[in-house]
Amino acid sequence: MHTYLKFQTNIAREKPSTLLNRETNCPFCDRETIFKEGVIISQQAPFLLIENKFQTLERAYQMVLIETETCEGDLSTYGKEHLHSLFDFAIHNWLAIEKSGKYRSVIFFKNHGIHSGGSIYHAHMQIVGLYDVDYRTHLLPEHFQGIVIDRSPGVEFNLSTRPRGGFTEFNVVLSDLKSLYKMGDYVQIAVHFLLNHMNKRYKSYNIFFYEYQGHIIAKIVLRAPGSPYLMGYSILQIPNNLDDTVQRVQSLYFSGAVK
């Protein structure tokens, strides 16, 4: 059974795109206008959580979390201080909006690259309050289980053996908020691996965040042109080299040791 959201195409046509046309002025770099428009929900320099100017979904409230002051930089290259501060700001704002009671559920995700569903090059995330939909309806525990790459107290990093969309999906499962910074480290490793070692052709990924069964979970997904098996028949494909991928990540980032 599917869940549907109504998409307002007339509003979407007005959205700028700096992914396909880098000559277009970046709306997220223009902080002077952002402050003048009075759309800021929360801020902690250099991070801004703002109202999305283009509310393309009916029965939803869309927000944008701007990660940097300029178009330079990406999650895969952030220094540790910036990375950890970003995760602290992002996760706590998302959870606060979820607990506000205004929405049935609140989704939190990141697009990167032309195959990710995004339109703005500037590093950002999105938080969307859904008035009628609970995103957890279609989740199963097996979606976040996999071959362990590394683990630390309160957090596990694994490669999914039952991906939601097929092929390569990394999971970072946080059971203790005290380990939030380590979660950020694992997410950064997954993103860096996808962009630099897994598939250099597409340079696209998504990160999907979930609050599920007492855990905070990040699912990092390599994005490429969609599989016809999935799109046409809802048949998922799982690579036969999962163990090899785990060993590659361990050798590159953990010297082969699983803690």
Automatic annotation (TrEMBL):
Membrane spanning residue stretches: none
Gene3D superfamilies: HIT-like (3.30.428.10)
One Pfam family it belongs to: DUF4931_N
Highest taxon, organism lineage: Bacteria
Domain DUF4931: 7-132, 140-254
UniProt-recorded name of the protein: DUF4931 domain-containing protein
